[in-house]
UniProtKB/TrEMBL annotation:
Source organism (scientific name): Streptomyces triculaminicus
The protein, known as: Serine/threonine protein kinase
Superkingdom to which the source organism belongs: Bacteria
Keyword field: Kinase, Serine/threonine-protein kinase, Transferase
Gene Ontology molecular function: protein serine/threonine kinase activity
Biased composition (Low complexity): 21-32
Bias (Basic and acidic residues) ranges: 33-53, 398-422
Keyword Transferase included in the entry's annotation: yes
Keyword Kinase: yes
């Protein structure tokens, strides 16, 4: 299936063992060719002895088994060291998810549960989100996002070195994300090309935060340094298409043995000098660095600041096709006249019968306009001698003056699903708060459905916008990421937020593609505005859903 090559299965490398489905293991594990211990992290070690975990048997489950009467197991992707990883379906929300399963008596069950619950509290959209972590019926399972529209960094690097702008975006986004994680006391310890995903929009997402290390029993005395060196290895590989150690790993060739670490701009010609030095500063190598006199970066925070201090690297200019040359007349080899006649000049404009008719029509319109202007001028001159009449301002003028188009502050937003289970992506990666955060890269998404009519389950879902108090609303601008049918509704009573659809009345309706302007026929005063989606379209991953990236309200 298409999902297998891009799903977020955050398991560790196979360490020489074959997974249950070898093809899936190559596509979805985070480094099938890596050696047994983490070569990029010299201070990383296994916690305790490996034998109990290797002797423990993973739960004997099969496709079709349900967890919590909700998660239906579809395909086992990896089975090793006493745990198994599955592609599953959340039957309640009708979406694909990933599941890690361990016996409750597994020596790593408790650390995995603790790591998953800590990672879930972070709520940073730059990480693949943990959706559930449960101990039930002698099983421990962790449920996480499954991203069919994202690609592992492993095949991206296998296709060739990155452009400087792409490598800059990689190290910038990953270092900032890991700096935020370490501020909350969370480490990854297993960062490699298999644990970094690139979405279709060019954003990078990190999977397996804390959980990946807990599944394999990995600890580190210096977790910040371990993750920083791993980011440096990713940047090195992006610049050179080589792994910065002697051993081959992640589908990349290692460096020649006996030479030590070589700067990227010495491995491959044309490497950006600033990024080459940055990679060397991150690859600390027990304190040694080949980057001029600058200090090595030993934490993700230091690395992100070093990236920010660099001159910004612009994306390459797009290539424009050269227009075809204008055909020239060919001359004979002996300098005679042209072999082919030159293009015939077009006839003078307006010489045909239609052109003459058009010319007379324009002349008639000009004469009529002159006559009308003369009549209005004469009428104005005749009224100059009459006393002035007081002018009255109509109520419509008052309304237009008050509807001055000033921005209205949004105090809060709430997902609205009165015809379903009462909740439509209230939290998580695509939470409702991202619908008006001012960042077009984040968005609120509905759940996934089987067809454009919400799978026949309901007639619509939406977002309630709370303006804090009763205010005049003249226009609501909404930016969508895919085409939907949408209605604008306002609350009939602003004293409290309505809990059902009958508490709103429709004031505008349209079919949106990207940015849509919803305007009531006349400005209304309300506190609560409902953006109600009535029909969805199929997105690039084959699911039906609606996505809102920005909401703006003006008076």
């Amino acid at each position: 299936m298409a999902e297998r090559s891009t799903a977020a299965v955050d398991v560790a490398d196979n360490s020489g063992e074959q997974p249950l489905t070898a093809a899936a293991g190559k596509a979805t594990t985070d480094g099938a060719a890596a050696d047994k211990k983490v070569s990029t992290h010299k201070d990383t070690q296994r916690a305790g002895h490996e034998s109990p975990a290797r002797d423990a048997q993973p739960p004997e489950l099969h496709s079709g088994h349900k967890l919590a009467r909700r998660y239906r197991l579809e395909e086992c992707v990896t089975r090793l060291e006493g745990f198994s990883s599955w592609r599953a379906v959340d039957e309640k929300l009708r979406r694909a998810v990933g599941v890690h399963l361990l016996p409750a008596d597994h020596p790593r069950a408790r650390p995995v549960l603790a790591a998953a619950r800590s990672a879930a509290l972070l709520g940073d959209p730059r990480f693949v989100q943990v959706l559930d972590a449960v101990e039930e019926n002698d099983l421990v399972y962790v449920v996480h996002e499954w991203l069919p529209d994202a690609t592992e960094l492993t095949p991206v690097l296998a296709s060739g070195p990155m452009e400087p702008h792409e490598a800059y975006q990689l190290v910038s986004q990953v270092s900032q994300a890991m700096a935020a994680a370490h501020r909350e006391g969370l480490a990854h310890l297993r960062l490699n090309p298999g644990s970094v995903l690139r979405t279709g929009t060019g954003q990078y997402r990190i999977r397996g935060l804390a959980v990946m290390a807990a599944l394999r029993g990995i600890t580190s005395e210096h977790p910040q340094r371990t993750d920083t060196e791993a980011i440096g290895a990713l940047l090195y590989a992006a610049l050179t298409q080589r792994w910065p150690y002697e051993n081959d790993a992640h589908g990349l060739s290692g460096l020649p043995k006996g030479l030590g670490l070589i700067a990227p701009d010495q491995v491959r010609a044309g490497v950006h000098r600033g990024l080459s030095e940055l990679a060397m500063r991150a690859l600390v190598n027990d304190g040694a660095t080949a980057s001029r006199q600058e200090k090595p970066c030993t934490t993700p925070e230091e690395l992100s600041k070093a990236v920010a201090a660099m001159p910004r690297i612009r994306p390459p200019e797009p290539d424009f096709a050269t227009p075809p040359a204008y055909p020239r007349a060919q001359t004979s080899p002996r300098g005679g006249g042209p072999l082919q006649p030159l293009p015939v000049a077009p006839p003078p404009p307006l010489q045909s019968r239609t052109g003459r008719a058009l010319k007379w029509s324009v002349s008639a319109l000009l004469i009529a306009a002159l006559g009308l202007g003369s009549w209005q001028l004469a009428d104005t001159l005749l009224e100059d001698g009459q006393p002035d009449k007081p002018r009255t301002q109509s109520s419509s003028d008052d309304a237009s003056r008050r509807a001055d188009g000033k921005p209205v502050r949004i105090e809060d937003v709430k997902d609205f699903d009165p015809l379903g289970d009462g909740e439509e992506k209230a939290g998580g990666f695509h939470a409702v708060r991202f619908s008006h955060d001012g960042n077009p890269a984040t968005f609120w998404s509905t759940n996934n459905y089987n067809n454009a009519d919400f799978g026949g389950l309901k007639s619509g879902v939406g977002i309630i916008v709370d303006l804090g108090k009763k205010q005049r609303v003249g226009e609501v601008k909404v930016t969508f990421l895919n085409e939907v049918s949408v209605q604008l509704m306002t609350a009939k009573d602003s004293s409290s937020m309505p809990t059902n659809l009958s508490g709103f009345e429709k004031v505008a309706e349209t079919k949106a593609t990207r940015e849509v302007s919803l305007k009531p026929k006349k400005p209304v005063e309300t506190r609560y505005v409902l953006i109600w989606l009535t029909k969805l379209t199929q997105t690039e991953d084959g699911e039906y859903r609606g996505r809102i990236s920005e909401i703006q309200v003006t008076s």
